[in-house]
Amino acid sequence: FLHRIGKNYFKVHMVPIKSTKSSGLGACEWLLVLISLLFIIMTFPFSIWFCIKVVQEYERVIIFRLGHLLPGRAKGPGLFFFLPCLDTYHKVDLRLQTLEIPFHEIVTKDMFIMEIDAVCYYRMENASLLLSSLAHVSKAVQFLVQTTMKRLLAHRSLTEILLERKSIAQDAKVALDSVTCIWGIKVERIEIKDVRLPAGLQHSLAVEAEAQRQAKVRMIAAEGEKAASESLRMAAEILSGTPAAVQLRYLHTLQSLSTEKPSTVVLPLPFDLLNCLSSPSNRTQGSLPFPSPSKPAEPLNPKKKDSPML
């Protein structure tokens, strides 16, 4: 029963489609064509200026005679002949056309809402098919690009949209070409121009990026501190073995101070004097130790002499 219903539905809907096909000119139409030709011959050569037009190299002409599309390919480039009273012609530009797609909202795979705009480059490939299938070419291409981009970008995350624009444009071109070839249009290129993020999403991304930068700065600073401490430890080991190197380092520090800050007055003290000032009895807790010459240890005298006052 369902098979019969589908078969009848198919027959009913196929009849008007067959009736819309052009069956050629009728008898009255052929009569009008002959009258027009006779009129052109009678008024020759004046009528020839109204029957011949020029088509540029980048243009093609489609001729409709009494509303019927003339068979054959489009006319041009060069001269073409038409009947002024019966024929109407339409020129189609075959050069590359640029269409700017306005901002429209999309939803990404990770559920972010964003706005994108794009630019589409296309050309007319089949003029006869184009005029017989589309009324507004730019609107049809614009809406098709918007719906195709929404469908493709719904399967990609925000990071992929920002980083993989080239592959997205290639996928969109293939998807558009599969549809526009039926209309006689060839899509040459499509590119995403700009991506507009909401203010809240921009703030969250900025905070995340700032946190990552701060973490990297801390890691680099920690690595620098570690390397500096290792260098200081090695330098301390080297200086502890050679006392003369400490004196040279001290003199080098004084020279650096006098060079960097000429207004500063530096009074160098000898190391021997510093050693005397930094004796164990005068050192306070937390002060830096200075190298002091080793003194011989005095022998302990367990027996103390009595004081003469006693």
Automatic annotation (TrEMBL):
It is found in: Membrane. Belongs to the band 7/mec-2 family. Keywords: Membrane, Transmembrane, Transmembrane helix. It holds the Pfam family Band_7. It comes from Mandrillus leucophaeus. This is Podocin. Gene3D superfamilies: 6.10.250.2090, Band 7 domain. Residues 282-310 are annotated as: Disordered. GO terms for cellular component: cytoplasmic side of plasma membrane. Plays a role in the regulation of glomerular permeability, acting probably as a linker between the plasma membrane and the cytoskeleton. It comes from the Eukaryota.
